[in-house]
Every structure is written in C-alpha cells, then in structure tokens.
Amino acid sequence: MPLTPGASMDGVEDARRTPPYHDTVLEFGTAKPFEIDLRRPVDAAALVSMRRADLDEPFAVITACNPGGARLDREENARRTEKLEALLRDRGIGFVGVDGCSPDRSRREPGFAVQLPLEHARALALEFRQDALFWFDGERFWLVAADGSMALLPPRS
User: Fold this and answer.
1) Spatial distance between the Cα atoms of 108 and 27, rounded to a whole number of angstroms
2) How far, in Å, CA of 53 to CA of 50, rounded?
3) What is the domain partition of the chain in residue ranges?
4) Residue 53's CB: how many other CB atoms inside 10 A?
5) What is the mean pLDDT of residues 13-30?
C-alpha cells in the first residue's frame, strides 16, 4: 500500500489497549544517551545527538513488544525483543537500542532504531505484528500505521 501522509490513523490507537503513540518519549541507549519527546518538534540538540549516534539518515523505530496492541507479560516481550535483535544481527542490519516510554515512564517498550527504507522497515514491523512504527525523515518524526498511513508528530493543532 502506498504511504499517505495525513491519512486516517483509525485503529492505530485504541484507548482501551495502548496509550497514545504521539505521547511517546524515545530514549536512545547510545554511548551518550539522549531522549526525544514526540510531543514536541525535533530541536537542534536532538539532531546533533542523532548525528552523533550515526542516525544521520532517515530511520525507523521498531519494537517487537505487545503485538497487535495485546498486553504481553515482561518475559514474553523480552523474548520477542531478543528475537528481533537476533534477526537484525542475522540480516546485517545496524541498529541502536531505543525504548519507547510514556511521559511518566510508567510504560516502556524496548525497540531499535534501524536505517532501512521505509517500506522495508514497515515490512519488518509487520513481521512482528506491530500496528505502527515511528519514522524519522531527517527533519521530523511520523507515526506510520501498518496500512501505510502516516501522521506527523507532534500532531499539528
């Protein structure tokens, strides 16, 4: 399916199952850790931090946790994360560890930043039954749903 910025994101956020994706804070587990709050536009300091982490090209943030919005226990999510990491290593795909967190840090999903073409990243997310992924286009973040629809982060009011 074609990627369509601004298309409907219906079904991606079910309030009964998951917190809003646009409230996510990304914590990058690099040599010099940094975070990006997706409720705010990407600033110059974040761009510098991403460049220092060799994330100077567009990239996706993908998790293997809680497929289809289901809440799995910590052990099962850890197994799924290990499987995704092993797959990335087996395929020779470089990655940076990134946790997607709620603003108050009460929820956390480990994942990975991967520099892949968007369609490849989306296919990888679908392999792990994910409803969506985060995409950084070099200037801003997008929420990309499994169907390819895209929403700019932070949402414009």
Assistant:
1) 10
2) 5
3) 18-153
4) 19
5) 73
Percent of the chain scoring above 90 in pLDDT: 83
Q: List the alpha helices (DSSP H) in the chain.
A: 44-52, 74-90, 118-127
Taking the CA atoms of 74, 82, 104 and 58 in sequence, report the sign of the dihedral they define: negative
Q: Which two tokens stand for residue 131?
A: 């409803």
The token pair at 65 is: 């946790």
What's CA 42's distance to the chain center, in Å? Answer: 15
For the segment 80-138, what is each residue's pLDDT rounded down to a tens digit? 999 999 999 999 999 999 999 999 999 999 999 999 999 999 999 999 999 999 999 99
Distance CA 119, CA 138 (A): 16
Structure tokens belonging to residue 127: 């392999």
Q: Please tell me the pTM assigned to this model.
A: 0.88
